[in-house]
């Protein structure tokens, strides 16, 4: 009983800061959108398009950070600080390399990039202004992404949360001042939003780097750590990070495809999915909080050659995920009628949104299970590749084709299309459950390191 209490306490300590950090990010991003939206639709579109470039960049860098976090979690279980330094160093070099490439492209080809997404001359002008300023934040973002993943892997999920909190509060305050010209400052509009973003990300990075340098010895790098590159470690990091990057890219492209399918149904369908996706994203924060904590706990045990304990902990996490899934499903189903009343939309959109939220509640359990398995347990066990394949195949061979047939052939309503496509979660559940029961997901990637 005491052991169970200690385990769940550890899981909570890891999960809660991640959930809070993601919740803060989501809330302030929504606030960001509202502020820019007050300037006009053109300004909102300009920043939205410019941020597509950042989305692509962050996808690659977060993949590198996730690959590092998987290896560091196992190395932390092994208590091999020297190799942790080696992985962290390579992760930083890779992330900074991507940052510099994207910064050069974004600065010198900003108008071309914005023009790929929108042909409106004003959107291109404003989007280019935003991109040329915000692009300088990519360097510090690379450091923050990699260090955040590494910190979580050694059990410190609080520091990234506090860095993110301070940075995002600064972003919100500076947005209000610089966009609208409050407190005697000039009203800079879109450029003001870019400056606020740049300053906020610099502050967030400085907080993380300062605390790591002063207090987190396992992640404290020195100049001698960068004197030589270990080729075997480069290959291992590449093998670990690549499936994560491909998984994120596959997921992002699938979401774009779903949006195109929903757009074929009509304007009301797009409005409906905008409402429901915003709401379901709030529930998803809890899922990914548990998943990222699972990487640390499972990775630590596997790296320490305690495979049986890793399996035991994984089973406990799954049982907890089931309980959390049931609670979230009931909560969503009960609140759905009240949530949709908040939006000033037509009765058709409101009814469709309520139906879709009920559908999400019905499929919440497999959704939670799949998220915790793919992003958490399998990655922590060193089996990121299998989770990526399972998600990619179920999306592109089941979910998207079903949605396409329902929308284009049968011409069903948006709620019916989403109901049919959500069966991809059910298929993914059975695939992942079989993999988990086989124990083939256990892969100690650091076992033979000298």
What is the secondary structure topology, with strand pairs?
Layout: H1 2-37, H2 41-78, H3 81-108, H4 110-117, H5 121-134, H6 138-153, H7 158-180, H8 190-215, H9 231-265, H10 267-303, H11 307-340, H12 347-362, H13 364-380, H14 384-409, H15 414-421, H16 423-438
Helix pairs in contact: 1-7, 1-10, 2-3, 2-5, 2-6, 2-9, 2-10, 3-6, 4-5, 5-8, 6-8, 7-8, 9-10, 9-14, 10-11, 10-12, 10-13, 11-12, 11-13, 12-15, 13-14, 13-16, 14-15, 14-16
Family: Belongs to the multi antimicrobial extrusion (MATE) (TC 2.A.66.1) family.
GO molecular function, one term: antiporter activity
Function: Multidrug efflux pump.
How does this structure look, described?
This protein is mainly alpha-helical and 450 residues long. It has 16 helices and no strands.
What are the salient characteristics of this protein?
Probable multidrug resistance protein NorM, 84% helix, ion transport, MATE_MdtK, cell membrane, 450 residues, single chain, antiporter activity, mainly alpha
